[in-house]
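seq:
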Amino acid sequence: MEELCVDLARHGLAAWNLEYRRVGGGGGWPETFHDVAAGVDALAQLDAPLDLERVGAVGHSAGGQLAVWAAARPRLPARVPGAEQRVAIGAVVSQAGVLDLRLAAELSPSNEPTRALLGDPAANAWAYDVASPMEHLPLGVPQLVLHGDRDETVSMRIAEAYATRARAAGDPCELVVLPDTGHFEHIDAGSDAWRVAREWLERYARAARS
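struct:
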């Protein structure tokens, strides 16, 4: 995501790029989620002129799931990973995100990495309840769900199911299907897929306050 952060900065938006422990590198449940929550909340400790009343998030693939999960933290039960929130996310973009982890655990090829992260859905139902953005709707914040029509890594069914449920729950959730787009164009700072995401974040950041 480094190129995307540089591009955001070039367009006048402060960018904070989070890394987290991954499966096989000390991550998984719940370590990865602790890392993301801590990374977001660290914004509150920076000595920088940031507007923490207007924080947006964007993430790709597994990072899309984590970005939307981070926006859902006010909906989490007490005393679960991420529940002690210091910085709220007011809008979020998912780039080919895995937003319904139970569905992802059943669909190939997302089933293997999803189960590696959280285990079997039946045996680890509580982890899926906490980790899957689908389980926390409505989020109460604007959401942009981007998905390429040629994505062979994360099924379009996941984006469609999530956006349908989000809108039914009353969330302002926009699903945009990107033509002639696979899974990785989203993280190319020169792509149309990224331009759509960046311009949406710019509109959110610069919108008049109510």
